[in-house]
Design goal:
single chain; alpha+beta; Aminopeptidase; 31% strand
């Protein structure tokens, strides 16, 4: 099930953040602030399996741009479609809020993530040298959100119905 995050999710999401993003992880305090709604443009979604949070997505939607800031799924639940379902929820909400594109940065050395985003219809538009704390380059990706159902390509087009 995909649902909006609640303040009670902050601790488990911070743990998932640390496990999945290592040196690039946001602090538990920043995760808690985001989940609690203290960061006005940032929204969080949770992927649950059997009532347990096993993945999440954080994004900022402002005007015509949605920015995917975080997405991660616990290793035991990867390759089950949860990341695609989280992304589909973002696309649905972003489109409804008037966004016409989704942007994100991903480490250039993260081949698995790059392949995932390519499969979802994202394309590279730029690179940001020394973007990450360890000096790694970020690849900037764009997913256009044309009007109408099914836009954007890949599994990201349709809305998730099991909120």
């Amino acid at each position: 099930m995909i649902r909006r995050a609640r303040p009670a999710d902050a601790e488990v999401l911070a743990d998932l953040e640390a496990d999945n993003l290592g040196i690039d992880a946001w602090s538990p305090g920043l995760v808690a602030a985001g989940v609690s709604g203290d960061l006005p443009t940032v929204a969080w979604w949770v992927a649950e399996v059997d009532g347990v949070a096993v993945g999440y997505l954080a994004a900022s939607i402002a005007g015509d741009i949605a920015e995917l800031q975080r997405i991660a799924v616990d290793r035991a639940h990867r390759r089950t479609g949860l990341a695609a379902r989280l992304l589909a929820e973002l696309v649905s909400v972003a489109r409804a809020d008037g966004a016409d594109r989704v942007l994100l940065e991903v480490r250039e050395d993260n081949a698995e993530a790059l392949a995932f985003y390519e499969g979802q219809g994202f394309g590279e538009i730029d690179r940001r040298r020394r973007y990450y704390r360890d000096g790694a380059t970020a690849v900037v990706l764009l997913l256009p959100l044309p009007d109408g159902a099914g836009g954007g390509g890949g599994a990201a087009g349709p809305a998730v119905t099991d909120r």
